Amino acid sequence: MAQLGGQPILIMKEGTERTRGKDAMENNITAAKVIAEAVRTSLGPRGMDKMLVDQFGDVVITNDGATILKEIDVQHPAAKMMVEVAKTQDTEVGDGTTTSVILAGELLKRAEKLLQQKIHPTVITEGFRKAAEKSVEILDKMSIKSGIEDNDGLKNSAMTCMSSKIVSESKEMLAEICIDAIKAIAVKDENGKWDADIEKVQIQKKEGESIDETSLIKGIILDKEVVSPGMPKLIKDAKILLLQSALEIEKTEFDAKLQITSPDQIQQFLDEEERMLRTMVEKIVNSGANVVVCQKGIDDMAQHFLTKANVMAVRRVKKSDLEKLSKATGGMIFTNLDDVTEDKLGYAGLVEERKIMNDSWIFIEECKDPKSVVILIRGGTDLIIDEVERAIHDALCVVRDVVEDQKVVGGGGAPEIETAIQLRKFAQTLGGREQLAVEVFADTLDIIPKTLAENAGLDQIEVLMKLRASHQAGNKFAGHDLETGDVIDNMMSVGVVEPTIVKVQAIKSSTEAASMILRIDDVIAGAKSAGPPGMPPGGMPPGMGGMGGPGMGGMGMPPDMY
Ligand code: ADP
Ligand code: MG
After folding, report:
1. DSSP annotation of 345
2. Which ligand gives the minimal distance to the CA of 496?
3. Cα 372 to Cα 217: distance, rounded to the nearest angstrom
4. Is residue 31 domain-shared with residue 104, that is, in the same domain?
5. From the CB of residue 479, how many other CB atoms can be counted at a distance below 10 Å?
6. Within 6 Å (CB) of ligand 1, which residues are found?
7. Tens of pLDDT along 454-490?
8. Range of 73's domain?
């Protein structure tokens, strides 16, 4: 509200809350730190798991940073930006979500100290930007070449990413499945660049058995059964008709009355229906098809004729599945049986109905296009299966990252320590306040090995000192092996490997978020229309969402902020 000759002028809607300057910044930084704190204990193979319960009482148990943040209902705008960091990391590279959030939180925590020393946010963010750029350069330089040919590199990266998951006991076998899946779908373009779209890997889940029964199927699975028990359950050299229309006599669109005056007419009527269905099936059989996959229904009589002709049929298949089948088997999707010709049928080496637990599923394997693969996830309970799915998702992403980017580094804190050491050297070439910001950035990176050690119940400082000493002696991949608890000179030698791009992206997304939060000095919040649903009892920790501190009201700049 401003004043003009004693007359108040309303600028913003009544109820609008505004926090500015130092308060706004402190508020935002606190919120961001709270988010980072929430995921800190889950970092690394010795990290703890979280149990999340939503408003309907559904439970999720996970160790995955992105999932944890997705499940908690965050209200504070700055906290929401931290959640976005995890999301960005997840969509860009699929792993390193916890790392990126922890880094962003630590950057802000340390920036707060710089602010207290009256260094302007612009200077800080500029320093951070330079440091991040340099870090990416350093990471690139220390990387080792890998790629689709490098089986060890792929396997170790996948296993490292799963070692922090609840399902880590089965990581070797799951890693192999993920590698096979990515190799099946990866394509090389004319410039020799690899592209692997993980969307092409279909995921199916079925409760029962154990994780170790999880398997890779080269083909497609339909969550359906053969329509009639008399039909064959296994067909080799399948010629598949993909049909969008029903194998039924169409009902008239409007009400029609049929006047039947004698029993003969009923018979005639039924005969005609039978004849029509018989013709339909004949058309199918004549085309050479021995499998019919239909999006709509199949009449009992048609089923009968199909059975007699030894044709396997599946009905009410989802349109999306039909489209996938079309791609995989090279078959056209038909709406009219008159158009069907043999050369437009799909092909698969094997179509089989298999019983899994109490359900029957149709497996279509050895397809024309070998690029369609399915991972069939098994596990004792829903909770386990969901966590296996998340682990597989991360591992698929990591394998893709290595295939596409072709660079890896040792893990266990090694890249962070090495980057920090080199950054400190770089900082000395800058001087002034910028140097300070770059140094702070370097110190921030140490939070990763420190947190890994802390989560393993070890002394942070001691581990840090040992790591630094080894790096100073020239071991760029010296890290903290959490299997044994020792600091070793080369993490690669114990198979702890990560895609460089995961580390690069973590630095980029955390720096971006921290800088964005640091540049905000004014938070204007519109009046809430109603209490937000699902607000956790007990509310936010102090400092969160707490708009309306001193400094509200007047429009002038807050005095002497920096
Ligand atoms: P994020 O969500 O960031 O990927 P994770 O919980 O998956 O977090 O932990 C990843 C960190 O754990 C990485 O820094 C990685 O190098 C480290 N890590 C994984 N396995 C090991 C291991 N056996 N020894 C040491 N560090 C490991
Ligand atoms: Mg991970």
Report:
1. S
2. 1
3. 9
4. yes
5. 32
6. 42-45, 47, 65, 95-99, 160, 163-164, 411-412, 448, 452, 480-483, 496, 498
7. 999 999 999 999 999 999 999 999 999 988 888 999 9
8. 17-145+410-518
